[in-house]
Amino acid sequence: MSKTAKIVAGGAAVGIVLLIMLPAMGVPFWIAFLIVVGIPTAAYLTLDPSQRRRLRRVTRKEIGR
User: Fold this and answer.
1) What stretches of 1-65 adopt beta strand conformation (E)?
2) How far apart are CA 59 and CA 65, in angstroms?
3) Which residues of 31-42 are buried (b: 16+ CB within 10 A; e: fewer)?
4) Backbone phi and psi for residue 64, each to the nearest 5 degrees, phi listed first
5) Count of domains in the chain?
6) How many other C-beta atoms lie within 10 A of the C-beta of residue 53?
7) 57 and which of 7, 19, 47, 62 could share a cystine (Cβ 3.0–4.6 Å)?
8) Which among 4, 29, 8, 9 is positioned nearest to 19, based on CA atoms?
9) What DSSP character marks residue 18?
10) Which domain holds residue 14?
């Protein structure tokens, strides 16, 4: 399994655990969903345009050619 696949699998696992645990702790499902989706979205939006371009290039495997 590649390093990227491990990171994606870990992120998915954390997201699923949060979606299960937060409603169990009394947080409504829609708030739990906003937390799980909103934090990565907010982090992406805080990047500079050049950092966003670099992040997109990494996902297309253009860095390191």
Assistant:
1) none
2) 13
3) ebbeebeeeeee
4) 95, 10
5) 1
6) 11
7) 62
8) 29
9) H
10) 3-59
Entry pTM: 0.54
Contact 18, 35 (CB under 8 A): yes
- Which residues lie closer than 8 Å to 33 by C-beta, 6 or more apart? 19
Handedness of CA 24, 33, 14, 5 (dihedral sign): positive
List, for residues 4-21, the tens digit of each pLDDT value: 788 889 988 988 888 888
Report the half-sphere exposure of 46 (CA within 13 A, side-chain side). 6
The answer as to whether 65 is a domain residue is no
As a whole number, mean pLDDT of residues 9-38 equals: 84
